[in-house]
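thread: overnight batch results

M.L. [08:02]
morning all. the overnight job finished for the chain we discussed friday. pasting input first so we're all looking at the same thing
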Amino acid sequence: MLKIENLSKVFNAGTVNEKAALNGLDLTLKNGDFVTVIGGNGAGKSSLLNAIAGTWKPDSGKIYIDDVDVTNMPEYKRAKFLGRVFQDPMMGTAATMGIEENLALAARRGRVRGLKWGISNKEREEYRNLLATLGLGLEDRLSNKVGLLSGGQRQAITLLMASLRKPKLLLLDEHTAALDPKTAQKVLEISDKIVEENNLTTLMITHNMKDAIAHGNRLIMMNEGKIILDISGEEKKNLTVKDLLQYFSSTSGEEFANDKTLLA
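M.L. [08:03]
and the structure it wrote out:
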């Protein structure tokens, strides 16, 4: 479902601020893979997601989504392949619009718009049933402005919006980092449920090593723009945080220095 070949990107080339964000990275995701991504500051995690999403073009390499070469495809065109949830709960929704209006926008993405009622009674019932699966009581608040909801509620709605059209690839960019631990756990449970029920190929960046181990069927660790560890199956299930730290030290030759990750 996703194939990345020899992907490289250097920011501020030729200046004192030159930074190699991605360094000849190769990655392949099979249909239905749920991959968690861990790494220190500047490891290239967000750069990887931005490259896939088309936020900027790589200096070299290729990106294929469902066998389609999207390397030079504009961001707005490749959006039809993707669903994305950002770290900031404010980024995935329209704050001044109601819950049902946000869901309607997501449902109509990429479709031709016509002159008819914005939301039909049938659609409204579908949205109500979808929201009920979250277990947050939002099915009775369809007309409520999204901007009045909590961060966790907004992220849950953003997850629904991102998965509504069954994207080829779901990108979760540290989508629980801005939430308190209890709310983050609830959002992760909802994420697991949505991914499993829709068999979505998913790439999830997290700063929490325990979450990286507990979720998904595969874990990759990045450092200096490369993948230095790729574990799946039973080996991943038996991992501990201590194991990950040892793997990082042995493969990179340095200590894992990311307070946010170590304290999580």
